[in-house]
Write a structure and sequence with these properties.
This protein has 209 residues and is of the alpha+beta class. Helices cover 44% and strands 23% of the residues. A hairpin with a 2-residue loop joins strand 6 and strand 7. The longest helix has 20 residues.
Length: 209
Amino acid sequence: TVLAWLFRNSLPALLIAIPILFQPELRRTLERIGRVGIRGWIAPSPVEQTIDTVVKASLNLSQRRRGALMVLERSTGLQEYMANGVELDAAASIELLTGLFLPDSPLHDGAAIFRHGRIAACGCLLPLPQDSQTPSQWGTRHRAAIGITERSDAIAVVVSEETGRISLAKDGHLYTGLDEQTLRHRLTALLSINTNHGGWWWTRRKEQQ
């Protein structure tokens, strides 16, 4: 009888006390939902975050006509190419990528390599294609993107310094003239999350033709 009385009389007080005690947290949550909606309030996966960063950074660099080469490691390790660059191991962000590919940056001409959703190294030199018939109009960045994807299952995103055109390289093939939606769709189709012992890494996903 006593417990029933306590529960019955405490519930209204709790309904009033909880919003008062957690008022700052509730306000921040409601403000975020108001800005980005329910979908944006739910935290994206690391792969989604990386794809979003690469896509937005590519568009930013494209608009400014800044050349860039970003390589996303999958199951084939790229340690030998990271070794000739500058080790970074930094959280990926649009601001960092934009800064790395500034024309006056000493790391401008190399590639940024992503591993586990982070920028593992930058200023990396990549191999050129084995096929001497590669079109001559493609510059060193585009040829390096083809070369690294010939030797591994990595995905490379290239921004042309001359035209601002965005391209994607996969399995030694280059797909040019991509817009935001197409680039995001292709990266989402190619990259997926896989867990093992609490970790995650890039894996292949069958690309829908």
